[in-house]
Batch of 2 targets.
Target 1
Amino acid sequence: MSTATHGSLEELGAAVRASVGGAAVFQVLNTRLIIQLGVDLKAPTAAQNRDAALVLRVEEALRRMGIKLGGQGS
Amino acid sequence: MSATRSAFSAQTDSAAAARELVAGLDGARPRAVVFFAGVAHDGAALGGALADRFPGACVLGCSTNGEFSDGGHGKGGAVALAISDEHVGDCAVALADVGGDLDAGVRAAAEALSSRLGRPIRALDPERWAGVALLEGARGREERINAALGDVAPFLPFVGGSAGDDITFSGTWAYADGRLSRDGTALLVAEMRGPFEVFKTCNFVPTERFVEVTRCDPARRLILELDGVPAVEGYLRAIGARPEELGFPLFLANPLGLVIEGEPWLRSVVRPEGEALFLACAVVEGARLNLMRATDLVAETRAALGRAADRLGGPVGGALLFNCAYRMLEAQIKGIEAQYHEALSTVVHAGMQSNGESYLGHINQTLTGLVWR
């Protein structure tokens, strides 16, 4: 069973920002995530932020989009 | 004279409509031609005639709940928009088969687009490239199609709409790449040579009040509970209506809005199903949906086009538009269809009355599109 590689949505959001660069492309990705998963990486709710299952779902969605995290670019 | 040309035909005979569209676009030198037609039309005949007349152009189209352009509007006829080489450089079309493995169908179409352009579409610069999607619109799969498009090209927003079928949800068609599909989504990727933007507007603004989706079934587009009570009860309580008022006029006037960066992404209620609400768009558990306040349909549309012109730095030279059938019905019910189309006709355009709209996801009760200077 997979486990999330980021401890929180805030941490994941920072990794995505670092990976994709510009604010406009981050906003496009974030809008997709809000619509698909109800997760706003810019302002995760307290209840969502450390929900490991939710963090994993967002990581999986980003993986499907081919977003590579950890400074690998996209 | 605008380098974008539109054509309108009220003909219900496809051969006659094709002749009128071709004649209406006479003199155009398009890189892309988009057409919309009543669902009873032979889409392959219309697309084939346009492709024969403009052999160098990317041709795509789909069925509608009604068609409109600056040359006229109606239902059961056809419209077309020719976008010239002044506005579009490289472009490619593909037809995604979404009837089987939807993700595989979209991936295959993306590979075809990438192959034709000689570069992967996921690497295209969204500042210079636009995507248009004419989605299969009768089977409730637009959320999955939009997600699949996001998977193949996360940074390239596709804007578009769900093909129509006179609001019967019995079957739509889409045409691209010389083929017609009754279970497909037509895709266009185009390099824009001047200022352009995705256009999105609705005649509702968010209020401060909201409801939370506490239980739902997104695959069936059902909200089961709002604020911890059965959805119908929660909706009526939130908007201050009585059970006997439940019905289309109430739903039309009271969509719910997912608000992102201050902008509403509308979710329209279609009907109650027992104590649940069936929506025209899926929502997810935990979503906060704002109650919305209606504004004037015609004035807001006119203002939105004006704001687009401001952002583009000059008059809108052309527009490809996707207008929700709910907006069409609102205009009809209020007797303002003529004024509405007059507002749109301040720019050269063609569009369809859609079964839903798309931009990064599936939306309702919205006017989306691609506009350029």
Note: DSSP finds four helices and no strands in chain A.
Target 2
Amino acid sequence: MSHATGTTSSTPLITLQDVSVVYKVRRSFFGGTVDLRAVDGVSLDIFPGEVVALVGESGCGKTTLGKVIVALLRPTTGKVLYKGKDVWSLSKNEWKNVRRNLQIIHQNPYDALNPTKRVFQILSIPLKEYKLVKNSSQLRDRIYELLEMVGLRPEIAEKYPHQLSGGQLQRVAIARAISLHPELIVADEPVSMIDVSLRIDILDLLLKLRHEFNLASIFITHDLGLARYYAYEGRIVVMYVGNIVEIGPTEEVIRNPLHPYTQALLSVVPVPNPKLARERKEIPLRSIEIANAIAPPSGCKFHPRCIYATDKCRKVRPRLVKVGNDRWIACHLVGK
Amino acid sequence: MSHEKLQSHSSSNTLLSIEDLRVEYVLSEVLRVKAVNKVSLNVYKGEVLGIVGESGCGKSTLAYSILRLVPPPGRIVGGRIIYYGWNPPKDITSIPEREIRKYRWREVSLIAQAAQSTLNPIMRIGEHFIDTAFAHGEKNKERIIETAKKLLNYVMLDEGILDRYPHELSGGMKQRVIIALSLLLNPKLLILDEPTSALDLITQKCILNMLNRLKQELNLTMIFITHDLSILAEIATRIAVMYAGKIVEIAPVDNIFYDPKHPYTIGLINAIPSIVGDVHKVKSIPGIVPDLISPPPGCLFANRCPYASDICKKVDPPLKDLGGGRYVACHRYD
């Protein structure tokens, strides 16, 4: 069942089996609700220590999927397995262990940290909760060690979040996420609020920590350049309106995208190279409008925009199938 | 400043000339943020001038200054903005309010950041066009609607949209309505501040293609402001790089990307992870922007610059003409 297997032959850390998340959306003030299928039948394995970029445009379900992966959000249907065990039917102790091992870093560091607490307190809460320190001197040492790991000076411990810059806040959020020695970190657009000239430092920090602690890492972004940088040694997963449409080794997908949607997307990514920008051809689309997740098109959700769409595409939802070494595509026209 | 004179040699082709402009946000008698710090820049007819910089560099304040719309406590405290679209040319910083109304929208239009959200949710799109035209003295409703239809055509929207409400449109459609609205009174200069930042990639590309076409067909001049240098590779003909309230480099688009001169421009290009090029060469610029309330003497980039020497920490480098339309404010080129 679990398709989309990576190169690693070990047991997956996380397995998603046909996961869907349905939000009830109110139509109007008096009207009833309608279903919005934010994630629609997704199956995916995440292996220990691997790096994955989860990409797609706004509203494609990538943030929702990230929350499902770290067990912050229970899917409406489908299963989430942590090392083979269903995370939503674990005992209290096992659950606590899962919580500790799966961490998330949010997009907006200004919202993610409690504004009424100093950095020291923010970092001490999880350490105390999980009894990772025995006394206050150990706590102090550990917090200074964590700050150093994320490139912050010890004085930062005494500051409140509003006294820090976006980059410093995101480093504190990273320190908190790694303080429990997790096995997986999901980073949801962690640099979108950070200035261009400082973004790479934050990504490099996450990559360094990933290597040091052999963390699995999922980087959620709409920016394909950042995805390529972060998951250069890993895989890229492309989503469109709740579905995974393509999976493959990052550089292969960037250089040779197979799904028509991935092709279209890559053909319009701005490149810092004016000659290339003038010369390259963008892949034409029938429509620029993204499908509505409340009333998605029949068959392949991309068919109203796809210039290759056939009758089958209008009727049958394509499944994600393996088309080569570690490459998976959900398209009727590829892999035949 | 010597560079202004050098730049204004080709003045018959100049549409707008910003001279030694200083804009401050006056927080109190002693707390003044120097948001735009002695900026000189010409805008030439028919060009797409890209202005790039990171948050807080003063690029949006510069845009608002051109329309004399800097929000309080911001204030233009020095310099001139000469508009050459009128004969004789006039200094926008000193014309009376009644003339400013003939300037905004008729001569120069601004598409502000997140402008899509400024559409009135209880007004149909057509009413927006009528309202805007009325506010600027147009009276003939039929003629306004005719012009609106023509402009909607230009931005690839169906005329039927005139009867729709903003919430019925997607973000990309709203942004195209905003562009059509900004062109309603046939301005010569269109200023766009991060016009695609809220849009997804495919819509962004569609807007960029459309702007490229409008530029040709309507003989428009544009200023395109963004934090994303890559977008400028798609649309700009010339680029000005801003840092900490100052312009550090001006050059034709290809020169900026293939032969950047200022260490900040070089750093910014190296900080962009792209889908092309070598990922291993990408790196951040160390350090942070100095405090703009009491900026240090000398070059404001000196504390982050790998080439900084003694003089950089003492003397503010002037924008120097390197020839070929290239200007750089850096002591390395003294």
Note: The first helix of chain A runs from residue 62 to 69.
